[in-house]
Amino acid sequence: MAASQRITHVLIPLALLILCVLMVLFPTETWHAGVRGLSIWWDVLFPSLFPFLVLSELLLGFGIVHFLGTLLNPLMRPLFRVPGSGGFVFAVSCASGYPTGAKLTAQLWEQKLVTREEGERLVAFTTSSDPIFMIGAVSVGFFHNVAIAPILVTSHYGAAFLVGLLMRFHGNVSVKDKQSISDSPSASEKVHKNRLLRAIYAMHEARKADGRAFGELLRQAVSSSLRLIIIVGGLVVFFSVMLELLVQTGWLGGLYAITEQLLLYTGFPPALSHSLVGGLFEVTLGAKEAGGAGISIPLVYKAAAAAFVLSWGGLSVHAQIMSVLSNTPMRYGPFLFARAIHALIAPILVLVLWLPMMGGSEWPVLFQNGAKPELFLYTPDWTQILFSGIGVLGVVLLLLLILSLMSPFFLPRRMKK
Question: Where does the UniProt annotation place the signal sequence (predicted)?
Answer without folding.
Answer: none
